[in-house]
């Protein structure tokens, strides 16, 4: 889908292009897409996680998980969140003519444009050449007696930002170099950074540009917070006195943010529906024979418990 930059009027194919579909890239994509940004993940390079035989330390899988299943789950999650997934290799990235975005050249010969780009490939990085001083972006190292060059893992800040406007790096980085779960966290942090930068462009001053993405229980919404006037007061109290928004724009942003906050509270029936939907989705990744075997064991146990209670 083509999107239009509000400042330049230029049409872009995407709000966010992510290079790399591992834990870092998919995690960043989920946060970006859930905010409503048109997001695509290009994934056809060397994936470090696919070199792992069986992942033993990814939280939530007590006996580990095979890489094929985890990879499928990550991509499924990203696509459900709204990401487009394309199996193509990014060859190069160049700034657009106005410098407010990037043109991404693909191996198949096509190209797309994007407002923002997230690098999320542990290996490589050569596609980023020319975007900045290469002495800062790349570093030399010795391997097997030969001098080689690689992307500098310390090039990006911990929040994913870089010296190049609208370029973010989730991987490679020192923090997420070798553990999948840390890479996913780094991707999430970078995705949130992108969203917060977008919110600033949408007019949110810094004190209200911060972003979080979570769903809360409706019963936690205390009486005073059920009143929209209370949220308006909360928003107004956080607005800096020196903001330069027109009053109509300020009110529009305030109402939009209050709507978003209130939509994050869900009731018991909605929680139950989401829980069932989540479990049913996970069953799609379990071998049918394992499901049938578990069902037989449950039936036997229930019959045994029933006999004992008589």
Automatic annotation (TrEMBL):
<keyword id="KW-0560">Oxidoreductase</keyword>
<dbReference type="Pfam" id="PF07992">
    <property type="entry name" value="Pyr_redox_2"/>
</dbReference>
<dbReference type="InterPro" id="IPR023753">
    <property type="entry name" value="FAD/NAD-binding_dom"/>
</dbReference>
<keyword id="KW-0285">Flavoprotein</keyword>
<feature type="domain" description="FAD/NAD(P)-binding">
    <location>
        <begin position="14"/>
        <end position="108"/>
    </location>
</feature>
<dbReference type="InterPro" id="IPR036188">
    <property type="entry name" value="FAD/NAD-bd_sf"/>
</dbReference>
<protein>
    <submittedName>
        <fullName>Thioredoxin reductase</fullName>
    </submittedName>
</protein>
<dbReference type="GO" id="GO:0016491">
    <property type="term" value="F:oxidoreductase activity"/>
</dbReference>
<dbReference type="InterPro" id="IPR050097">
    <property type="entry name" value="Ferredoxin-NADP_redctase_2"/>
</dbReference>
